[in-house]
Amino acid sequence: MDGRPQVAILLGVLLFCLPAWFAMAQAGGDDPGTLDPEAVLRRELAARLAGALAKRPDAEELVRLVAVFGVVERAGAGFYLAGASLLPARSVLSVTLQYEGKIVETRRAVVGDGGSFDCLFGPYRDKRVFQGVYSFLVAYDRERQPVSVQEHPGTPEESRSWSTLVRVGDEAGEAAEKEEERRAYLEYVKALDRLAAAHESEARAAALKEKYTIGANRDFDELSWRRWASEWRESLDREVTRELLDAREEKVLALILPDAFQAILTLASYQQELHKIDSREVYEHHGRAFAPEDRTAEGGALFSRPAVLQQIAATRKRLDALLAAPEEDGAGGEEDRRMEDGKSGEEGGGG
Known about the structure:
This protein has 351 residues and is α+β, with helices and mostly antiparallel strands. It has helices at 4-27, 37-48, 147-150, 171-207, 222-250, 258-285, 305-322, 333-338; strands at 63-72, 76-85, 92-99, 102-110, 116-124, 132-140, 160-168, 213-214, 219-220, 348-350. The protein is 45% helix and 20% strand.
């Protein structure tokens, strides 16, 4: 039996259906599994805010904001901000997400024909989003608007800004995570203390020729000292500096204790400077030229031993205060202050 008619029919069906299949693939279809994670996250979070901006802003407030945080299957975690405004179409807005007073990300939003705009932060699939209160700052800079916007009747004559807050998780969860991070940071401080003690002990031993000597006359063995000094610096970098920075860049969206994080890095850098100073003194004590890696940046008295020791003491005092165990009384005071000027819910809020 000749199969050519059947083949012709099959080819016709394929040619008829391919454009539709291709269009569905481009648009993603209705199946969330076929959409890219950002599109899935945007659609799901936008649906959670449906109807939240039914009330239009008045001429005085000019902009109303609502925002939400959520974790969406097949996409990840993210924040979604939506706004209704009386701003001209194509107005450009800067949207900044902040946590613990520090900038997390800044993105751009463009006002549509009806005055609405939105902005998605995420998806965050491989980064931990700590619990707590996140703030959004939306800024309108008149000087940076397109000419068509600046010339539009009713365009604001000065720059303006608006904000809203979103709570992720709850207060108990936030407190537990802060305690977890506080204890982790204390381990880095212990590592710095251990390295500082080893540095002091070895530098003294090298100066007194108790170690790092060679031959019957116990001459200074600068090669062995240089090797130990290099290993010490590598330990500082590996156990503290590099590990902290890698964790910041790869594992978390924002720092839950940003000031303590920076203080640890600052303390590590000053300990490195002290190590170079003492290493140079070991070489000079034995009448040798110091190794190139022990050279410090130009700075005169700023990098003298007394100055560096003073900075270490001041940084350590501040770090101890930052990592002190939290007081149990008045735990809700900070939460009340942060939420005072905005609204929030378990996963979203608006102001």
